[in-house]
Amino acid sequence: VRCWSNIPFLTVPLSRAHGKSFAHRSELKHAKRIVVKLGSAVVTRGDECGLALGRLASIVEQVSMLQNQGREMMIVTSGAVAFGKQRLRHEILLSQSVRQALHSGQSQLKDMAIPVLEARACAAAGQSGLMALYEAMFTQYSICAAQILVTNLDFHDEQKRRNLNGTLHELLRMNIVPIINTNDAVVPPPEPNSDLQGVNVISVKDNDSLAARLAVEMKTDLLIVLSDVEGLFDSPPGSDDAKLIDIFYPGDQQSVTFGTKSRVGMGGMEAKVKAALWALQGGTSVVIANGTHPKISGHVITDIVEGKKVGTFFSEVKPAGPTVEQQAEMARAGGRTLAALQPEQRAEIIYRLADLLTDQREEILLANKKDLEEAENKGMLALPLLKRLSLSTSKLNSLAIGLRQIAASSQDSVGRVLRRTRIAKALHLEQVTVPIGVLLVIFESRPDCLPQVSALAIASGNGLLLKGGKEAAHSNQILHHLTQEALSIHGVKDAVQLVNTREEVEDLCRLDKLIDLIIPRGSSQLVRNIQKAAKGIPVMGHSEGICHVYVDTDASVEKVTRIIRDSKCEYPAACNALETLLIHRDLLRTPLFDQIIDMLRVEQVKIHAGPKFASYLTFSPSEVKSLRTEYGDLECCIEVVDSVQEAIEHIHKYGSSHTDVIITENEQTAEFFLQHVDSACVFWNASTRFSDGYRFGLGAEVGISTSRIHARGPVGIEGLLTTKWLLRGDNHVVSDFSEHGSMKYLHESLPLPQRNAN
């Protein structure tokens, strides 16, 4: 028998064999039987008198949704005392107002005092109303609820425990949601700690304990404890260094300092943790989360069941490596050390990584072969993605060349002075480049992305978190190992971290206090999902690569087929591949048009006809379903336009502001196109495939951005830097520059220091 707070708990409940809790959050979606414990702070209004009806309605909606999915839901609720207090206060005020109106007149009504209300009386008055409220709410979802009142003594009687167990099982069998509460009307008097401004409330520890007991007794898969804090913190919430604990393991109690209790109830977080650990020992998974926050309370229960990172998850399985939060902190500390190195030292790290890519070629290709074999055996990737996953000797050689370009061009990237101003005499201002901070790069099926992005982060002095797809796990592992080996030559191994935990991308996007910029590298769907999931973190990238090539009436016959073939066929899965071919109407039924069609047929490109193009043909190819399609394969759309102006309007309406090309020999038409197309990259007589950091001479890129803020187009080192202002003075104060002050502003531009010619 284990005891705390003078309440005994049997370590192995009578009716239950020792079970096994879920090891990871992602497994919570398999929970069948769930107990939701609603603390007093969740159920009670902010004025501590009456119920938070909107919040309660939201909780009932979520429980109903899960119940209708076939799960077995139970609720352990507080609130009878608060509801009863509201009713009794109303009755007392009404009674007093009548008596005082008869004996003293209206003048003294405002001076009426509310007597101290006894908690058990409040509970007796509130229990029926609380249950009636639950019944009315659940009825809206065609769900029946049933009330069960228990006391601690009921658990000491074996027969009563059996009866309770049987009743609950029968209710669950009939698809009824049990609403369980301590019978606060008959429990022994509480300790004399006052709460609810004069009302002694039965300790919340009773309901925490009750929820844990029932969860284990009923062999529950998951216990959700909702309180008025986000979860368990390593120190009292609100203190400067308090950090939310994502996963709590048995034995971690020594690392936690418990603070004061919540505004209502008397148990506090310590009681919740003890109850949670006891339930965990009995085989029930536990999550403690905030049920009062207006932004999350409407979906907190369903989010927990879906495995999202909400609150504190209690687990018996401790991972071997650091958590993703710890990795982000390590990356930030490592990044700051990296930024403090000399430029030559950062370049040396990148040169070393380039050498390792060629020296360890066999090991890299062997790991990549494992990934390819597993992907092919499982049939998990389409052919274009398999091509992205594949590494080769030539790819590794190209990577090494690109990394050496980055090293050579990064000598003065960090700490470069962009502006110097003499504000006043002996008061000088500088604007200098600095790293952004910690970057999170999420990429799919492209292991070659890892060394590229790592080199750019190293050159720009940024900490880096990498999250690769599981399809490239072996390749990513060895490439990250080589990256850390290169970083180790100057003691900054931790600056680049590879996330190997079972972390969902959506959860990573919520780490707004640890991550400064998210860069997705993958499908348009991945980018859209990340842009939607990011909570307060900027996302750099593009959701789609709908690139156009416009063939003008003055286009060169020799150039057209070469540029179109390269744009579409050289690498059709790339984001900078041609997707829509715009042809001037005057070129239809000309030899040039026939050459274009013949070339596409030879290259086995499937053609989709745009609406106008289809109208010119008796037998047309399949008409396009949407002019906003990124095919990512040997397919493209052909559409007809009447002028360069119409081509520009089409691009603006259906394009993605990525890369667009004009083929013409008319310089005036070309310049009009270049100046008026509002895309990140606009080319004249050149393939769309040139839209690439390596081909631009940036060495590599972290991605191509179609954003209009900070960085646009292929993003290299410059796009991973921001600035800070340095002001050097000598006893300067603003009051000296007032109307009658002794100093005047000069605001003179000063020459910049010479950049390193190398």
From TrEMBL:
UniProt superkingdom: Eukaryota
EC number: 1.2.1.41, 2.7.2.11
Catalytic reaction(s) noted: L-glutamate + ATP = L-glutamyl 5-phosphate + ADP; L-glutamate 5-semialdehyde + phosphate + NADP(+) = L-glutamyl 5-phosphate + NADPH + H(+)
Single Gene Ontology BP annotation: L-proline biosynthetic process
Domain Aspartate/glutamate/uridylate kinase: 32-290
A Pfam family the protein falls into: AA_kinase
Aldehyde dehydrogenase domain mapped to chain residues: 323-588
Keywords from the UniProt entry: Amino-acid biosynthesis, ATP-binding, Kinase, Mitochondrion, Multifunctional enzyme, NADP, Nucleotide-binding, Oxidoreductase, Proline biosynthesis, Transferase
Keyword Nucleotide-binding applies: yes
Listed GO CC annotations: mitochondrial matrix
Cellular location(s): Mitochondrion matrix
UniProt GO MF annotations: ATP binding; glutamate 5-kinase activity; glutamate-5-semialdehyde dehydrogenase activity
Entry keyword Cytoplasm: no
Oligomeric and partner information: Can form homodimers/multimers.
Similarity comment: In the C-terminal section; belongs to the gamma-glutamyl phosphate reductase family. In the N-terminal section; belongs to the glutamate 5-kinase family.
Role played: Bifunctional enzyme that converts glutamate to glutamate 5-semialdehyde, an intermediate in the biosynthesis of proline, ornithine and arginine.
Protein name, as recorded: Delta-1-pyrroline-5-carboxylate synthase
Organism name: Pachyramphus minor
